Amino acid sequence: xxxxxxxxxxxxxxxxxxxxxxxxxxxxxxxxxxxxxxxxxxxxxxxxxxxxxxxxxxxxxxxxxxxxxxxxxxxxxxxxxxxxxxxxxxxxxxxxxxxxxxxxxxxxxxxxxxxxxxxxxxxxxxxxxxxxxxxxxxxxxxxxxxxxxxxxxxxxxxxxxxxxxxxxxxxxxxxxxxxxxxxxxxxxxxxxxxxxxxxxxxxxxxxxxxxxxxxxxxxxxxxxxxxxxxxxxxxxxxxxxxxxxxxxxxxxxxxxxxxxxxxxxxxxxxxxxxxxxxxxxxxxxxxxxxxxxxxxxxxxxxxxxxxxxxxxxxxxxxxxxxxxxxxxxxxxxxxxxxxxxxxxxxxxxxxxxxxxxxxxxxxxxxxxxxxxxxxxxxxxxxxxxxxxxxxxxxxxxxxxxxxxxxxxxxxxxxxxxxxxxx
Amino acid sequence: xxxxxxxxxxxxxxxxxxxxxxxxxxxxxxxxxxxxxxxxxxxxxxxxxxxxxxxxxxxxxxxxxxxxxxxxxxxxxxxxxxxxxxxxxxxxxxxxxxxxxxxxxxxxxxxxxxxxxxxxxxxxxxxxxxxxxxxxxxxxxxxxxxxxxxxxxxxxxxxxxxxxxxxxxxxxxxxxxxxxxxxxxxxxxxxxxxxxxxxxxxxxxxxxxxxxxxxxxxxxxxxxxxxxxxxxxxxxxxxxxxxxxxxxxxxxxxxxxxxxxxxxxxxxxxxxxxxxxxxxxxxxxxxxxxxxxxxxxxxxxxxxxxxxxxxxxxxxxxxxxxxxxxxxxxxxxxxxxxxxxxxxxxxxxxxxxxxxxxxxxxxxxxxxxxxxxxxxxxxxxxxxxxxxxxxxxxxxxxxxxxxxxxxxxxxxxxxxxxxxxx
Amino acid sequence: xxxxxxxxxxxxxxxxxxxxxxxxxxxxxxxxxxxxxxxxxxxxxxxxxxxxxxxxxxxxxxxxxxxxxxxxxxxxxxxxxxxxxxxxxxxxxxxxxxxxxxxxxxxxxxxxxxxxxxxxxxxxxxxxxxxxxxxxxxxxxxxxxxxxxxxxxxxxxxxxxxxxxxxxxxxxxxxxxxxxxxxxxxxxxxxxxxxxxxxxxxxxxxxxxxxxxxxxxxxxxxxxxxxxxxxxxxxxxxxxxxxxxxxxxxxxxxxxxxxxxxxxxxxxxxxxxxxxxxxxxxxxxxxxxxxxxxxxxxxxxxxxxxxxxxxxxxxxxxxxxxxxxxxxxxxxxxxxxxxxxxxxxxxxxxxxxxxxxxxxxxxxxxxxxxxxxxxxxxxxxxxxxxxxxxxxxxxxxxxxxxxxxxxxxxxxxxxxxxxxxx
Lengths: 422, 422, 422
Fold this sequence. Notes:
With 422 residues, chain A is α/β, with parallel strands linked by helices. Chain A has helices spanning 2-9, 18-28, 92-96, 126-130, 179-199, 216-232, 259-271, 287-290, 325-344, 372-384, 392-399, 403-415, and strands spanning 34-39, 43-44, 47-48, 52-62, 67-71, 86-91, 99-100, 122-123, 137-147, 151-159, 166-172, 206-212, 233-238, 249-251, 276-277, 299-303.
């Protein structure tokens, strides 16, 4: 997955533009996504898709030294996203009003955009900023273009299952040159989709995988597919910030207790040593749209160090020092476990009254001692809740056993013909 | 408001008698209440209005010195309320069995009544008690009268609104010469009613303001108006102990979660640094009747230092050392905020799917930086709950924003045509 | 009750066999239970009643010394329950594979059974074990018999009440020579049944008292009486481990909030200084059957030191050093209080609106002082919840008053004609 991140790292992405398409083409070499395009100007609910914005070059030259003091080619974050084109000589004072830096993090280039307000600007480290010559004039060049007849690009893959009901797995692809937020998301989703697609071990639900620009992309996607999504989506996740090893977090849906929320909490509870339970008020990615009033899809989000909570967030320091293969792999595993719960969850019902006799089915130890009672305790606990009203997920919560433990015991009961078949 | 308290301070009040009427006449100089009277003997649910009791003079003379050692004219609390008339020479021993004092508060005259049991008595400070001559005889005079054909008086004002639904605001007017409990209540309610009546800024609900003797007065009022109250009262408060600056408290209704309770808790949460959440078991004023089984009006109570919880309670020390204009003013402000919530609360519903585009409505900052997201966060949070199922009060609680903050944001949405009009 | 325990102590009991019948005959000298028998082989839900097992003698002789080194006559726990017959000379190594001891409790003989797996074995203290001669041969004799045409015995008593609805009181009678678990249960239930039967003070509900072998006995009983139990049982308890003085515990039903659970918690809350609230996951006795999916009788359990939680559990140390007459008596009292709540609980409704006038009914102190309000506070609190929706049990919980206190106040209201008669 680190490889995917590295391939995508230096491609310049924004909410529109050729970089998104180029990135999607790379992902397509792993999984057979369809790359779709929607025209600039298309009305999507309260929004219109903005003109497609592309950038060829951007730099600032100190006219005293004739050297490039800020250069987009050094780091993509140097340019404020969606900057209008400019080619002018400006004073230091004029330049400064277009510069962004973080005094408290003197080595970080901040990430700044101005999508819906015509403006231009550059970002740089505070250390670079204080080295600028206050007496110099500067030649500012931004060779950007806005295409009113352009397009917004996104990628989509449907992996059909036995059921038309869909699990929606979404990530965003609109941030330049940062890794935990965002490249970890596309990398993990690519591998997650690949597992579902190739291994076929999950085949009850249909899986809809989308790679979209954040906010405008999810609004566009919802606008184009609203009725279908409302009809078929029964669960899903926004996959973002899943690359470092420092933390786990869960951002719930707006209503907070959908099946996706419950699965996320269950999997995190039994498979991580600790996780932060965020509130809807801490949201920040496409769940904002998926769970908005009237949309209300059952979408939840599991993250590692969550956007807005780590110091490198939205700066050039969100790089490969932070994100590791191990971090990505752990995230993939957690999401696979969530899929596992979606696929395997059911409402078992025992087919005998009173406890079944486990001994005659070789489910009970041969001799009962002070300790031996404990050995079958988990099985007995699970059985005691197989009343047709509790799902395996419920039983996992009630019995304080991981879903996979409960599922293992459920399979033993199934093999022993102790469950009513549906 | 201190002026109102001072005007009423030395008028002798009890549950019946000319002092109540005299007090209501003073209140009538501020707001146009109607003074109503109900005849002694009238059956009110399980009670009968007692004979009207009036007092001309009451004192105890030490016959050794021929001096008045207890004199009702010095302080009204010296006389046990509803004492029967007496004019006798008694021994010290006999006198003592009719005296009340508080050893632990040697400078306080306690407040004692005997409404429904024929008796007489005097109250005095412990310091005065120990100075009585144990060898003297005493001339005891209580020039009181009981009128079986008398009346119980109360004051009432209806301020009609657009709706026939009523907010009931009640205070009691039956305690002699004490300020936090009781004069702060009538003072704050007088000014609260005056604000509603004069400023007309609250005009959706009708406001029913009553000044009644505690217990027998509320029982009488409920008995006379039961069907109307059950039909129209949608909220309200018992206003008592609202004059000092030492504490805030909330006494809930019997069922604990009426709209009045929720508003009281919300206003106290966001507008005081701290408040005591009492239980129904801590009740003690007319909510006992308003919330009794079968009556169950949605009535709650906000207090400063609550009856029964402060050491000066029901003694002569509950005076102007305790109650301040600032204390009264803060209480008035809190109750005005409660009225504000009643009047402004509604169930807003956003009229677009997904998040609205705030930028094109000048609701979004022009440039997005690491920090700028936080600026519109509150607005976004409020929007995310405008689903038609949450009231502004709900949203205030969910988003941890004061009602007035939420209302301000709601008004911005209304002006931006982002809400479905009802 | 200690006497009952002592009479039963040395009778050898297992899930079947003559010892159970002999034990029931002793209980029958106290209360008129009917002794019932069900044939071996009878199908009971998922189970078959096992062959009746009886034991005449069992010992191990060291052939070097010709002395009995383990003798069933010394302590019944020496023999593994349901051991098959054997009469053989075995080596030390062979013998050891059939021995059970607890190294951590060197003076305790453990309790081991092998009901459904054909096997034999002996139990002994670790101290005795290490004294065995490793070079000796051993003569092992178990003179046991299995009767395929035998019977399982249990005792039953129905004490009819005004209502056909039944309170089910169950204990088990299948453990040899241990006192807290199990003889305390039969002893307390014998005296509890005797009180209900003789004193007739509890006569609304019918009481069904059963003494059954654990697990197979309750499954058998449920199998034979399922429809009747489902129709008539409205509450009840499994009475076990009620003999020591060290602790109190409550094991809830599977669903956790039946009337039996609520009564148990209420009685323990107000009548013990402390109790352990166990979860359904901590269960271990016949509630496993009574509350199994589809059976779901409202059965709960109050214990002293609960099975599995005290170090002497299931060993020879669970003896009369642990169980005391005082411990048994306290348990009897607690269960009688539970019966009391079942019998007396009702939904009182006050027959006046607003507070009733307590004074005219001598329910109010004659003179009101700073303190006197507190005296009628409990009565007023109870009255305030007599709305026909709260039971006395609810009111006890809400007002933090014991059920008997609430009941006393309820009786005062009843005598004062303040309650609506049903």
